[in-house]
Design a protein that fits this description.
The complex is a heterodimer of chains A (about 400) and B (about 260). Chain A is mainly beta and about 400 residues long. Chain A is built from 1 helix and 21 strands. Chain A is globular, with a radius of gyration of 22 Å. In chain A, about 35% of the residues are buried. Chain A has an 18-stranded antiparallel barrel. In chain A, strands 8-12-11 form a 3-stranded mixed sheet, with no helix packed on it. Chain B has about 260 residues and is α+β, with helices and mostly antiparallel strands. Chain B has a single domain, classed as outer membrane lipoprotein receptor (LolB), chain A (Clam). Chain B has helices at about 1-20, 20-35, 135, 250-260, and strands spanning about 40-50, 60-70, 75-85, 90-95, 105-110, 115, 145-155, 155-165, 175-180, 185-195, 200-210, 215-225, 230-240. In chain B, strand 9 and strand 10 (about 185-195) form a beta hairpin. The longest helix of chain B is centred in the first third of the chain and has 18 residues, at about 1-20. Chain B is globular. Classes of the chains: A mainly beta (about 400), B alpha+beta (about 260). Chains A and B meet through strand 1 of A and strand 6 and helix 4 of B.
């Protein structure tokens, strides 16, 4: 029942939270130890694809409207807080038109410990081109092709900071399914993934409890994290069931490690996972460095060069197609009043012909507007790779957001 | 007899002062200034930054700042941006070290990510302003070598003028000239000389207020860049020395929570 109507359910939760929050105090009052603030952004973007899609129903231009309302209420001088972040998009693709509660949680802080209950977003890891160890939240796949946007995850999180690092324990009572594009959408597989095509290894489906733990610490130039996850995985297995594709969320055990060494202008990074399940065992690694040339010629310009190697032992079965690839990128930060920045990057498969290029740029306009540009190019995608489904989906996108 | 001894002591002290090299006296002034401000414990304040370009157009940013005093090592500090609104909630946590490079983390609220960043970029501009990162970091005595220059009047008070040279080769300056107030060692003015030894910037301190009886804090710091004609004014409000902040208020979890 829940699985059929789950996307509507998140939309309803979004609307209810928003209504409740509009009823809450909206001005800062710091004298009595309380603080409240309403913020967020609304924006318009336009995504233009360079060539016709491979599948019927797909369009070439996608104007889209986004909004992200945020609300924070703190009391007891910030030792208690409620935080809400909502997100919504209206798009030509009805699956990409979605509403989500990114965060809606209560947090209690006492000295060295922290308890959070509700929907929250948690990030783990150090590398730039792949986020292997980051597993708490489900990816919002219709929102971002690179997997950086996440759906809100219901959790109870206990965090304890000690002299030997921070310990985090998670109880995750509900696992969310990945959202995939609909028939009018681009960046999709040839088949449309409907709820009927999705199944869970656990009889309890989404409601099977998942547990996770992480220890993180830093010593001198080193930042280290070790994590363990047990429960329903975030990445579905794809099974070809006599011509029909089936998605299966299995129960997995995943151990992750992430390490960064900060040595002057160089950041050395590595993260790796080992994942075991009844269907597939796998491991993957991402490792590399970031070197920053700062304040070049006293102009304020910083150029950061990033190089990372990615390996996934699933080979062609890797969902990300990053099985034996190299990422090379450069980040330009002008450090001017308008915070002008851009990032160019390429991912190159070391065995196959596949190449992915990306360009992202942003600049503030006035005090509260921001203009962004994003381009992704898929070039010479090898027919054996998962990415072959989207080989015609190179696009250019402009966005304009108003922050409040 | 007593008088003779006092005179003798007086002559000896005068002799020591005379024998003191300008380097020794400069270091002494820096140490005295550091000592004078010792014991503030922790502080919090609100910050307004006004950037003025060559044409006189202004843009304003709001931040908040917390500092924890440490005596064995450098101070710890947390800065949270409130505006421009697109970077609202972005926060930095810095552990200053008396020797070696500082430890610094950046929190990016859009992706809930804490990222350790290189503290190598000392000379680069802070948030597009005329302040470099090194101008705003904790001013530990060990970070410079000193030379006393002279005594002179500035802002209607008498000041001790000391040249200080950054120890770190990554600094954007060859030297700085610092005007210390002779009575309470508060800073009155700093001139910054670039790597070519040309006058680059002047920082003027004003509207001093005293907290906990002896901790002087300027409510306004104005940096003028003589080479570009741009200016940045920092205005400090709501200084609070009574929060009694602890080390646990400067953890990575605190960094995430400070983002609001």
């Amino acid at each position: 029942m829940i699985s059929k109507s789950s996307s509507n359910w998140w939309g309803s939760l979004f609307s209810i939270s928003l209504l409740l929050i509009l009823a809450l105090p909206t001005h800062a009052q710091e004298d009595d130890g309380t603080f409240s603030e309403f913020s967020g952004y609304v924006g318009f973007d336009h995504r233009q694809f360079f060539s016709d899609g491979l599948y019927p129903g797909q369009k070439n231009s996608y104007p889209s409207f986004v909004f992200q309302p945020e609300y924070l209420y703190e009391w007891n001088k910030g030792d208690d807080r409620i935080k809400f972040i909502g997100f919504g998009r209206l798009d030509r693709d009805k699956r990409r038109t979605h509403f989500d509660v990114r965060e809606l949680y209560y947090q209690k802080v006492k000295g060295n410990w922290e308890l959070s209950v509700g929907l929250k977003k948690v990030f783990w890891g150090v590398t730039e081109s792949a986020h292997l160890v980051d597993i708490i939240n489900q990816t919002d796949f219709v929102e971002s092709f690179d997997g950086e946007e996440k759906l809100g995850q219901p959790m109870v999180q206990f965090s304890y900071t000690t002299g030997i690092g921070t310990f985090d324990l998670f109880y995750l009572p509900y696992s969310r399914k990945r959202v995939f594009p609909g028939s009018k959408g681009r960046l999709r597989t040839s088949f449309i993934i409907d709820n009927g095509d999705v199944s869970f290894e656990s009889q309890a489906e989404e409601t099977r409890p998942t547990f996770a733990a992480r220890w993180s610490a830093f010593v001198g130039p080193f930042d280290i994290g070790v994590s363990q996850f047990h429960g329903t995985g975030r990445e579905p297995f794809f099974a070809n069931n006599g011509g029909n594709f089936q998605l299966l969320y299995g129960i997995i055990d995943q151990t992750g490690i992430d390490l960064q060494a900060t040595m002057g202008p160089v950041l050395w990074k590595v993260e790796s996972i080992v994942r075991k399940s009844n269907f597939q065992d796998m491991w993957a690694i991402a490792a590399g460095l970031e070197y920053t040339f700062s304040n070049i010629g006293n102009s304020g310009l910083d150029i950061g060069i990033v190089g990372e190697y990615l390996h996934d032992d699933r080979g062609n079965l890797a969902f990300s197609s990053l099985d034996n690839d190299v990422f090379a990128g450069a980040r330009f930060a002008f450090n001017d009043t308008q915070s002008t920045e851009f990032l160019i990057g390429g991912i190159f498969d070391l065995e196959k012909s596949t190449k992915l290029f990306s360009f992202e740029g942003s600049r503030r306009l006035g005090n509260s507007w921001k203009a962004e540009i994003e381009m992704r190019l898929f070039s010479d995608v090898a027919p054996t790779e998962f990415l072959n489904f989207v080989r015609k989906d190179s696009f250019l996108q402009f966005s304009l957001n108003k922050y409040f | 007899m007593k008088r003779t001894i006092l005179t003798l002591i007086g002559v000896a002290v005068a002799g020591m002062v005379l024998a003191q090299s300008p380097e020794q006296r400069g270091l002494e002034v820096a140490k005295a200034a550091d000592k004078y401000d010792e014991g503030f414990g922790s502080s919090a304040s609100k910050l307004t930054m006004v950037l003025t370009n060559k044409q006189g157009q202004e843009s304003t940013r709001f931040m908040s700042n917390q500092t924890l005093e440490l005596t064995e090592d450098g101070d710890k500090s947390l800065i949270v941006f409130n505006s421009p609104r697109d970077v609202k909630g972005t926060a930095t946590l810095t552990y200053t070290h008396k020797q070696g490079s500082d430890d610094q983390w950046l929190y990016l609220p859009a992706i809930s990510r804490v990222k350790r960043i290189s503290s190598n970029n000392k000379s680069g501009p802070f948030m597009g302003s005329e302040f470099a990162y090194e101008d705003l970091s904790s001013q530990e005595v060990e970070k410079y070598t000193y030379k006393f220059l002279k005594e002179e009047q500035i802002n209607g008070v008498s000041a001790l003028v000391v040249e200080r040279d950054p120890v770190d080769v990554k600094s954007g300056y060859t030297r700085q000239i610092v005007w210390y107030n002779k009575d309470n060692y508060r800073l009155e003015q700093i001139e910054f000389y670039d790597r070519k030894n040309a006058l680059l910037k002047t920082l003027a301190y004003s509207d001093y207020k005293v907290y906990k009886e002896k901790h002087w804090r300027a409510s306004q710091m104005e940096m003028t860049n003589h080479q570009t004609g741009k200016k940045t004014k920092l205005i400090f409000d709501e200084y609070n020395f009574g929060l009694n902040l602890k080390e646990e208020d400067f953890s990575q979890n605190s960094l995430k929570r400070a983002s609001r």
